[in-house]
Design goal:
The protein is built from nine helices and ten strands. It has 284 residues and is of the alpha/beta class. It has one domain: Alpha-Beta Complex (Spore Coat Polysaccharide Biosynthesis Protein SpsA, Chain A). Strands 1, 2, 3, 4, 5, 6, 7, 8, 9 and 10 form a ten-stranded mixed sheet that branches. The longest helix has 15 residues. It is globular and about 45 Å long. The N terminus is likely disordered.
């Protein structure tokens, strides 16, 4: 797993590439991370997972009104927005994606500040893109607890009915859609990935769903724990935006006639699968 150790007092973070980079005929890739008030340790885990990719990429971190000066010392591009927007990071995502677009990056991916990639995430996505000549590649994600233990695989993020923000990688003409987050109405930001994905599907873009599960998603809300019949950690119990999501979905359907709701489908891991994954992750 990516290291989340913070540096000793008075010292800076040491950049460590954990995987060899494939540079021959490689695409120019950007990973956009919006952040708000996450801790340096949480952001470092996210950043380290980008550095650990087996293909070269550039990490663009965009602060939503609360910049961390330490990021200026990292191997990354740091964009500072002057104030917070209260929009689930959508303005920051658009700004980061626009930066990548105008700088000529071939592929644009997103990674929330509290999540992380498996080392082969971008390599598998670019391979999929090359094979399918697609504009958008979508991967699956693991649901993980605060201890980084994988609990389940999300089956909804299949590139058909839904695609989570962290699982979308945009290429070619699809890169324009990667910049569209700021157009989402203020009341719909809590369902931003559902909205953007509905827009993507309406474009004349080639979408290539992948069978690979290469995103680790940190579970912060209690609803998924309930579905898994697993006790939620205290921090998850304090967070619950289910009512906001329900209201936004209802209003979206009323105003657009587009139903973005779906039944949550999960593949809960048995103990031996969890152990197997953790052993695999220790080796990579």
């Amino acid at each position: 797993m990516p290291s989340i150790d913070s540096p000793p007092p008075g010292q800076t973070y040491q950049i460590c590439h954990l995987a060899p980079k494939c540079s021959i005929f490689s695409l120019k890739l950007a990973v956009v991370t919006p952040y708000h008030k996450e801790s340096p340790e949480t952001l470092w885990r996210c950043h380290q997972s980008v550095l650990s990719q087996t293909v070269s990429c550039t990490h663009i971190l965009v602060s939503d009104g609360h910049p961390l000066p330490i990021i200026d010392q990292w191997e990354a591009r740091h964009i500072r927005l002057p104030y917070e927007h209260g929009d689930y990071g959508d303005m920051a995502k658009s700004v980061g994606a626009m930066e990548a677009y105008v700088q000529g990056f071939d592929g644009i991916a997103f990674l929330d500040a509290d999540n992380w990639y498996r080392p082969d995430h971008l390599k598998k996505a670019t391979d999929r893109h090359r094979q399918s000549k697609s504009d958008v590649v979508v991967t699956y994600r693991y649901f993980c607890d605060p201890n980084e233990t994988p609990l389940a695989q999300d089956l909804n993020t299949n590139g058909v009915e839904f695609a989570d923000t962290n699982c979308m990688i945009f290429f070619g003409e699809g890169r324009k859609m990667a910049c569209e987050w700021f157009k989402i109405p203020h009341w719909a930001h809590c369902i931003c990935d559902r909205v953007l994905w509905s827009w993507v599907k309406k474009q004349n873009l080639k979408i290539s769903p992948s069978k690979d599960c290469t995103v680790c998603y940190s579970l912060e809300y209690g609803g998924i724990y309930e579905l898994l019949k697993i006790p939620a950690p205290p921090e998850a119990l304090r967070k619950n935006n289910a009512e906001d999501i329900a209201r936004a979905l209802q209003r979206w359907k009323k105003e657009t006639k587009d139903d973005l709701s779906f039944e949550v489908r999960l593949l809960k891991f048995k103990d031996h699968k969890v152990k197997s994954l953790l052993e695999e992750w220790k080796l990579r």
